[in-house]
Amino acid sequence: MGITEPLLYGVNLPKKYPLYASMIGGALGGLYAGLTHTHRFATGSSGLSAVLLYIGDNTMMFFYNILIAIVIACVSSAILTWILAIRFEKKNAKASSEKEDRKETSASKTSSKEIEMAPKAAKPSKAIVEACTPGTIAPLSTAKDEAFSEGLLGKGAVIEPDKGIVEAPFDGIISVFFPTAHAIGLMSDDGIEVLIHVGINTVELNGEHFTALAKQGERVQKGQTLLKFDKDAIAKAGYPTQTMVIVTNTPNLKT
User: What are the C-alpha distances in Å from 130 to residues 54, 139, 209, 235?
Assistant: First the structure.
């Protein structure tokens, strides 16, 4: 395949202007070769080594001409790329900066891959959230996913489950129940929003080893079993089973 495919699909096509510059540069080099009637004396593969095919008939003229054509193509392409970069990269940098600003604004509401919770309810005074699964509780910073460990989605805790069940931590409504059944979003009667996420990257299992026992929009009672999962099978598939319990509207709560 060579280096041309990564360059073409990784740089030239996405950025566009390097492709335009290389096309113009190649045309200028080809124009020089055509005007000097440069041609090969044998057939063979393309590439830099092919310049040797321009040696023949006891003359080095065509060999020198093809080298000059290559230099023209390379230098003119480089100069055009540099000139176009001054304009396009400045424009792209501004667009990227605006995109990052928008991303930071919404970082507390969304994860790197998924999770969009329901609209916010009235601000509750404080959160009382029971453990949703029996197991060992650890600080959120121990989560094996940066979106959780850095608190981008809100404050919470990590539970290393002893059993493969998820129970409702309070009375409320299921605002989000992912089709893959690996994550549940709930809203309490007091307006507390909680995300329960079973495992790391378990969305990739596409629902395998998970069994939903409730559905989105359903009203649930504290302690009601919402989900069952095969903890051992998930671990055997290579996914951590630690379960994150996140209060996604943390900024609205009093500590």
Answer: 80, 15, 24, 25
